[in-house]
Design goal:
112 residues, DapL/ALD1, transaminase activity, aminotransferase, PyrdxlP-dep_Trfase_major, LL-diaminopimelate aminotransferase, extended, 2 strands, 22% strand
């Protein structure tokens, strides 16, 4: 077991309604839980670079292929208000005892 340096956040109140987030170093400790051996078999640490690499390899082999990219990309339009309003409402709900639900499912929350 070892330790690693991570960063926490401390909130400092500047004046009414104004806050400043300040990074503070903390120490994280590893657990004695064994690592899943399949994790070591993964070739890419982050999904999107691997998708981009495979897409480029495919296009190099098949230059006339029409590939629909579902990668991260850049947005060209503002996020619709219905989406940002629902996100803001849900985020605010997490600040209340009634609305707090802990971690959501990895698929997201259906109501949002």
């Amino acid at each position: 077991p070892g330790s690693a340096q991570i960063v926490g956040v401390r909130v400092k109140k500047l004046k009414p309604g104004f806050f400043k987030c300040v990074a503070t170093p903390q120490t994280a400790y590893t657990s004695k839980v064994s690592r899943n051996p399949n994790i070591a078999k993964l070739q890419a640490g982050y999904l999107f670079p691997e998708v981009a690499r495979r897409r480029a390899a495919h296009l190099a082999k098949y230059p006339d292929a029409q590939v629909i990219s579902l990668g991260i990309g850049d947005t060209t339009e503002p996020i619709p208000d219905v989406i940002t309003s629902a996100m803001a409402k849900r985020a605010h709900g997490l600040s209340t005892l009634e609305g707090y639900s802990g971690y959501g499912a990895e698929q997201g929350e259906k109501v949002v």
